[in-house]
Specification:
Pfam families: DUF3515 (PF12028)
Structural class: alpha+beta
InterPro entries: DUF3515 (IPR021903)
Organism: Amycolatopsis pithecellobii
Largest sheet: 6 strands, antiparallel
Number of domains: 2
Strand content: 15-25%
Strand order of the largest sheet: 3-4-8-7-6-5
Order of helices and strands: HHEEEEEEEEH
Protein name: DUF3515 family protein
């Protein structure tokens, strides 16, 4: 109803319009926050390409994969375990985003493993580091199955230590195979 004195909208109509504008702004803000949290890269399924892993279905991998931690600590940040998109490579686990840490169990012997290869020992586990572009893959080479851990260059040493502890407590040592 128009105001008879000024010819403009009534006070009640102005208050109702202002209340609707505030409610609409609140709904838009809430939807924006919800959309931003659902667009967290760590919440999306991670698609990984398969790699040769002839022993991925081995008893050793069947023991290792469930023993792996739900989260890793890297440079003080907590990296949660990722859901892998189907078809997921067998015996594969990933943590963190946007550059995930990926563990694959049952891999074929890395060609870089030679008698002169420089190995590193972490928590009693022998690793073969192989540098890549933006990431390194560390191979467990002294167990009955080969395990690869691909770590972005930005990651600290925490993931390697944590995985070494799990490998040491889950898989029996085996002689190196060249």
């Amino acid at each position: 109803m128009p105001d008879l004195q000024t010819g403009g909208p009534s006070r009640r109509l102005i208050i109702l319009a202002a209340a609707l504008a505030v409610a609409l702004a609140a709904v838009v803000a809430i939807l924006g926050v919800m959309n931003r949290s659902s667009n967290n890269p760590g919440d999306e399924q991670l698609a990984l390409v398969p790699v040769p892993a002839s022993q991925a279905d081995s008893p050793q991998c069947a023991a290792l994969v469930p023993a792996l931690p739900a989260e890793l600590i890297s440079n003080g940040a907590t990296l949660n375990r990722r859901v892998l998109a189907e078809p997921a490579p067998p015996a594969t686990v990933a943590w963190g985003a946007p550059d995930p840490i990926v563990l694959r169990c049952g891999l074929d012997r890395p060609p870089e493993l030679t008698r002169t290869a420089q190995l590193r020992v972490v928590s009693g586990v022998q690793w073969l580091p192989v540098e890549g572009d933006g990431a390194s893959t560390w191979y467990v080479v002294d167990r009955e199955v080969y395990v690869g851990l691909t770590v972005p260059d930005s990651a600290g040493t925490g993931p390697l230590q944590s995985i070494s502890d799990t490998v040491a407590s889950t898989l029996r040592p085996a002689p190196l195979r060249f």
